[in-house]
Design a protein that fits this description.
The complex is a heterodimer. Helices cover about 45% and strands about 15% of the residues of chain A. Chain A contains 15 helices and 10 strands. Chain B is built from 8 helices and 2 strands, in the order ββαααααααα. In chain B, strands 1-2 form a two-stranded antiparallel ribbon. In chain B, a hairpin with a 2-residue loop joins β1 (about 15-20) and β2 (about 20-30). The radius of gyration of chain B is 24 Å and the shape is elongated. Classes of the chains: A alpha+beta, B mainly alpha. At the A-B interface, α6, β6, β7, β8 and β10 of A face β1, β2, α5 and α6 of B. The structure holds zinc ion (2 copies). One zinc ion binds near residues 3, 5, 6, 28 and 29 of chain B.
Chain lengths: ~375, ~200
C-alpha cells in the first residue's frame, strides 16, 4: 500500500466519532518496547539497528490487524511525507529525523502505527476520535500481546519494561488525550487548570505553544509517570481528570453564553468573516480562528454537517499538508499563507453565516465521572 | 516540595515540558533557578537537566566511572545523552538510577503488565518471596505451626517449578534438616533464599 493512498484519506481519529468528541478531539496510547540484549537505537551501530528493524518489522507486518498496512523505511520517505505523518500524529518529530535503520508501519485506518528504532526499538500507538482511552489501550495492548509471542522484550522483574530513557521505564506507556478548550482559554481559567493538573502528576500542554498561548486552543493531557502504577490505574486517573476538565470547559462555555454572549458572537462572527475572505493567513491565525468556528459548530451556530470540514482544516492547514498534492519541493512561507487562505475559503465557501438566534440557553452539561462509571 | 538541585530549599519554580509526548519536570528554588539560567522554560531540555543532576551525583560517588559490561555505556555517556545504552544498563547503574527514578515516578516497582511468557515465573517468584518472609517472621515469633504450614507451601511451589524446568529433579528437600529444629534455624531459613535448583536457568 502506498503512502499517498493512505494519506489521501483523513485518519479515523479525525473523521470518526467517539464519546465527547466535541471537546476531546482524540485519545492516544503509546507503548515503548525494546528487544532483550540489544543496544538501544541511540547507542546501537547501524548494522545492529538494521537487524532489529528487520526482526521487529517482520513481526509487526504479520499481525492480523496489520493486513493492508503501509510499511516504509524512513530513509525512503521524502521530508514532506515525513512531515505529513508528523502533522497527523502518526510519527514523532524525533522519528521523522531518523534515517537508515528506522521504519514506520501503520494500518490503513491510521489508528495503529509502529515506529521502529525511534528512541526505543519499538514505539507503538493506537489513536482514535473522542474520549476512548480504554479502547485505544485495549487495541495497543492486544498488538503488544501478539508481538511478544515472537519478540523477546526487555523486561525487568522490578522495573518492568526497560526503555532507553528512564522517564518511560515500567509500563513504557504514555496515554494522552487532545482537548479543545476555547471556553477555558477565553475565560482565562486555563492556566489554573494546567497548574492543578500538573500537581497531581499529569501534564497538560498546548499542542502548539504553551498555556494561554496555545494555538487553536488545543491541549494535550498525558501521564508523566510510568513506574509504580498499572496501566489501568494510570488511564483511570487520566480519565477522571479529563472528565473534570470537560466539565470545566462546558461550564466555562455556558457562563460565557450567559454573561458575555456578545463577545462570544463577535469572536465567532469575526473568525467566520476573516476565514471566508482572507487571501493570506498564517498557520497560527488560522488555527486560532478555526477554534472559534469549531466552538460555533458545537454551540449549534453552524449546521452540524460542517463539523468534519472544520476539523479537517486544523490538519489540512498545517505546512506539509498544504503542500502534499504539489510537486514543488518547498514553498516559501508567503506562498503557504496564500495557499492556506485559498484552501480555507474553498472549504468554507458553502458554510452559512453563524445563526445567532440558535444560541442555546442551556447547553448540555457533561456528566461527572462518578455518575459515568458503572 | 524541595528543590531538585540543592534539595534543601523549598521549590518555587515548577517547570514542565513535554517534547513529543514525553513529559519532563523539574522543581527548583528561586536561587537555583536563576543559577541554572532557567528563564526560558521552553528553551532547554528539562529532562537533561534532571538526568544530569542524577548522573552528576553518581559520578561523584564513583570517580572512576562504571561501565555497563554488556554494551560498554558509561555514566558520562548517560549524563551527555540522558539515555541508557541497553537494557542491562539498568542493572549496571542501578544505584545511581534508583534515586532518579524515585524523583521521576510514583513508585520503584512495576505493578503493571508482564509479558505472558514471564508472568507465571514472576508471580511464583513474588509468591515465594512473600511466603519466605512469612516463614521468617513465624519462626522469629516462634509460631511453629504456622511456620510448618508455610514451609510446606514453599516446598510445594518449588517442586512445581522444579518439575516444569525439568533440571531441578533431585535436589529438592531430600536430606534437608527440619527448619524448625534447634538453634541454627535462622541460618537454615537463609539457605532457603538460595534457589534449590540452580541448574534451571541458563
Ligand atoms: Zn535550590
Ligand atoms: Zn548497557
Amino acid at each position: 500500500m502506498k503512502l499517498s493512498a493512505i494519506i489521501a484519506n483523513t485518519g479515523e481519529w479525525l473523521s470518526g466519532s467517539g464519546p465527547h468528541d466535541q471537546i476531546v478531539v482524540s485519545s492516544r496510547v503509546r507503548l515503548a518496547r525494546n528487544l532483550k540484549g540489544k543496544p538501544f537505537p541511540g547507542w546501537a551501530k547501524k548494522a545492529e539497528r538494521v537487524a532489529v528493524l528487520d526482526e521487529i518489522r517482520g513481526a509487526v507486518i504479520q499481525l492480523p490487524e496489520m493486513k493492508e498496512a503501509f510499511s516504509e523505511k524512513l530513509e525512503d520517505l521524502s521530508p514532506l511525507e515525513k512531515q505529513v505523518l508528523m502533522e497527523r500524529h502518526l510519527i514523532s518529530r524525533e522519528h521523522a529525523a531518523k534515517g537508515a535503520g528506522s521504519a514506520v508501519v501503520m494500518n490503513t485506518a491510521q489508528t495503529l502505527s509502529f515506529m521502529i528504532n525511534e528512541e526505543d526499538h519499538l514505539r507503538m500507538q493506537a489513536i482514535r476520535a473522542g474520549l476512548q482511552l480504554d479502547e485505544v489501550f485495549a487495541m495497543i495492548n492486544q498488538a503488544d500481546g501478539e508481538l511478544e509471542e515472537s519478540l523477546d522484550f526487555a523486561f525487568h522483574n522490578e522495573l518492568g519494561y526497560l526503555t532507553a530513557c528512564p522517564t518511560n521505564v515500567g509500563t513504557g506507556m504514555r496515554a494522552s488525550a487532545m482537548l479543545h478548550l476555547p471556553g477555558l482559554v477565553m475565560s482565562e481559567q486555563v492556566n489554573k487548570i494546567i497548574n492543578s493538573v500538573n500537581k497531581i502528576g499529569l501534564a497538560v500542554r498546548g499542542l502548539h505553544g504553551e498555556g494561554s498561548e496555545a494555538m487553536g486552543n488545543l491541549f494535550q493531557v498525558s501521564n508523566q509517570t510510568t513506574l509504580g502504577e498499572a496501566e489501568e490505574e494510570i488511564i483511570g486517573r487520566l480519565n477522571k481528570v479529563i472528565f473534570q476538565i470537560l466539565e470545566h470547559e462546558q461550564n466555562a462555555r455556558q457562563i460565557l453564553l450567559q454573561q458575555r454572549a456578545e463577545t462570544l458572537l463577535d469572536q465567532i462572527g469575526r473568525a467566520y468573516g476573516i476565514l471566508c475572505h482572507a487571501h493570506s493567513i498564517t498557520s497560527k491565525e488560522a488555527l486560532n480562528l478555526l477554534s472559534f468556528i469549531k466552538m460555533g459548530v458545537d454551540l449549534g451556530l453552524f449546521p452540524g454537517g460542517y463539523r468534519l470540514q472544520v476539523d479537517e482544516l486544523f490538519i489540512e492547514t498545517q505546512p506539509a499538508h498544504l503542500q502534499k498534492g504539489l510537486q514543488a519541493t518547498k514553498l516559501g512561507s508567503e506562498e503557504r499563507d496564500s495557499l492556506r487562505a485559498a484552501l480555507i475559503r474553498t472549504k468554507l465557501k458553502k458554510m452559512p453565516e453563524p445563526e445567532i438566534g440558535k444560541i442555546p440557553t442551556t447547553p448540555p452539561i457533561v456528566q461527572s465521572p462518578t455518575s459515568e462509571e458503572s | 516540595m524541595f528543590c531538585d538541585v540543592c534539595k534543601s530549599k523549598e521549590a518555587t519554580v515548577f517547570l514542565t515540558q513535554i517534547v513529543e509526548g514525553k513529559m519532563q519536570k523539574v522543581n527548583l528554588c528561586e536561587g537555583c533557578s536563576k543559577e541554572k539560567g532557567v528563564n526560558d522554560p521552553t528553551g532547554f531540555a528539562l529532562a537533561d537537566l534532571l538526568l544530569g543532576l542524577g548522573a552528576a551525583q553518581e559520578i561523584e560517588k564513583n570517580p572512576l566511572g562504571i561501565r555497563c559490561s554488556v554494551c560498554g555505556f558509561s555514566q558520562t555517556d548517560f549524563k551527555k545523552t540522558g539515555r541508557l545504552g541497553c537494557s542491562a544498563c539498568y542493572d549496571a547503574f542501578a544505584e545511581g538510577l534508583s534515586g532518579m527514578l524515585k524523583n521521576m515516578h510514583r513508585g520503584l516497582i512495576h505493578t503493571g503488565k508482564v509479558p505472558a511468557r514471564l508472568a507465571l515465573a514472576l508471580s511464583r517468584a513474588r509468591e515465594l518471596a512473600a511466603l519466605q518472609q512469612g516463614l521468617e517472621k513465624a519462626i522469629l515469633e516462634e509460631k511453629f505451626e504456622d511456620a510448618a504450614g508455610l514451609r510446606d507451601k514453599i516446598r510445594l511451589l518449588e517442586s512445581e517449578e522444579g518439575k516444569e524446568s525439568k533440571s531441578g529433579e533431585s535436589n529438592l528437600s531430600g536430606g534437608e534438616p527440619d527448619l524448625l529444629d534447634g538453634p541454627n534455624r535462622l541460618s537454615l531459613v537463609q539457605t532457603e533464599d538460595v534457589p534449590p535448583n540452580p541448574g534451571k536457568k541458563s
